[in-house]
Amino acid sequence: MAAVGRVMRAIRVLEFGKPDVLKLFTDVPLPSPGDNQVLIRVHACGVNPLETYIRSGGHAIKPNLPYTPGSDTAGVVDAVGRNVASLKKGDRVFTTGTITGGYAEYTVAAEDTVFPLPEKLNFKQGAALSIPYFTAYRALFTKAHGRPGEVVLVHGASGGVGIAACQIARAYGFKVFGTAGSAEGLDIVLQNGAHKVFNHREKDYIEKIQEAAGEDGVNIILEMLSNVNLSNDLKLLSVGGRVMVIGCRGPIEINPRDTMGKESSIIGVTVLRSATEDWKEAGAALIGGMEAGWLNPLIGPEYPLEKAPQAHEDIIESSGATGKMVFVL
Predict the structure, then answer these.
(1) What pLDDT, on a 0 to 100 scale, did the predictor assign at position 323?
(2) How far apart are CA 219 and CA 25, in angstroms?
């Protein structure tokens, strides 16, 4: 339901396709919150690779057209619907999902997808929390059943999920290795929790990781580009090791024998499969990290809404990610 007479700026996708299908409209009716929903004035919204896959029409998720992308917002509660008990107008919040889309000045979200944003974090950092940090937590604990003391390799550690994973793993007592493709990226990964870093553009970087891990190998690999790295990942694993497939942009050929002797596992991860209890558990752990000070999202490129097509192109085409890409409203 739309609020009578009020309009907003929002990105709308009228057809699936290339980034230029992201169109900015200035007269989109302002939505109203229903039961158990809140209306949020969006100050920042995260940009995620998943949103580019959905926009292209090549993903299993195909929203009804037209739609507004975006799930990871941060802002201020503007209004609450009936039966909303945990939030009130004026609260600073971040979301793990939206109903009407986050690439907009206002969005409606279900109460159970809205979390308090501590004063320690600004809105841009709040918009960098949802998919990156909840995905990293899910990969490490819900799916990999990681334990303090294990060796974790974050393969592609300078992007949003990678930085989140390094911060979480370091705080929980893992030995953290990270890879990046530039000197700047390597420095960022070190600053955000990695004990050791490796340049994945060097020909012998796999051998360097093997040497650092020792005979036992790597217990958990968080893999952001499995179509390039999965075969090598299997060789790096320990007995009982797990590769968590978080990102993939195409097929790859592997030798299943590489999993047999070590009884290793390849496990897919998507935060979209999280149950309500999973969101609550991760949310509690992450809010604790914000309050303790170790959870500190790094912001990368910033865009206005009218540059949405450029943002979608950049997040896929640019190399050497350094922090979370966000829209600033």
Answers:
(1) 80
(2) 48
pTM given for the model: 0.89
Give the integer Cα–Cα distance in Å for 182 and 319. Answer: 9
- The span from the CA of 229 to the CA of 128, in Å, is 25
Segment 307-313 long-range contacts (CB within 8 Å, at least 24 positions apart)? 308/11, 308/19, 308/22, 308/24, 308/103, 309/19, 309/20, 309/22, 310/19, 311/47, 312/19, 312/22, 312/47, 312/51, 312/52, 312/55, 313/19
- Identify the pLDDT of residue 38: 98
Q: What angle do CA 257, 260, 261 make, to 5 degrees?
A: 105
Q: How many CB atoms lie within 10 A of CB 10?
A: 26
123-143 pLDDT, tens per residue? Answer: 999 999 998 999 999 999 999
DSSP code for 63: P
> Phi then psi for 32, rounded to 5 degrees?
-115, 145
Q: 245-280, pLDDT tens digit by residue?
A: 998 888 999 999 999 999 999 999 999 899 989 999
Q: Is the peptide bond before 66 cis (omega within 30 degrees of 0)?
A: yes
